[in-house]
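Fold it.
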Amino acid sequence: MTDTPRLPEGYEISTDTARIDAERVHRWLSTDAYWALGRSREKQDRAIEGSLNFGVHDTLSGEQVAYARVITDRATFAWLCDVYVDPSVRGKGIGTALVAAVREELRPCGLKRIMLATHDAHGVYAKLGFRPLERPDHWMALVQE
C-alpha cells in the first residue's frame, strides 16, 4: 500500500454529516459532475442521508471545498462515489488526500473490496492502490432509468 497523503495545511476532513453543505454538494454534482448531471436535490439529500460522508473544509472559513461518499455495510463491501473537489482548490492534493482518508477510515472494517467507477481519474485512484478489475466479465449491473 502507498503512503497516506496528507491534506495541505489549512484544510481538515470530517465524516460528520451535519457539516456537509448539502446545497453546495448538490450544485457541484448536478451541474459539474458528468456522472450526476441533473440529479435532483431530493435525490442527492437521500443519498447523503444513506451514506458515510466525507467533507473537506477550510479550517479558517469552515467552507466545504470537497466531498466524497461511501455506500457500505462496513463488513464486506463499499462503493466510493461522488468524489468532487471544488475547481478553486484543485491541484493541491485535496482529492488524493480525501480518497486516502476514505481508505483509512474503512481499513478497520476488513472489507474485501472498495469499488468505484471513473471516466477520467484513474491516476488519482491508482496512487492509492486501486486497480482495474481483474475479471470485469464477472461483474454485471442492472441499470434502471
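Residues 94-106 form the longest helix (13 residues).
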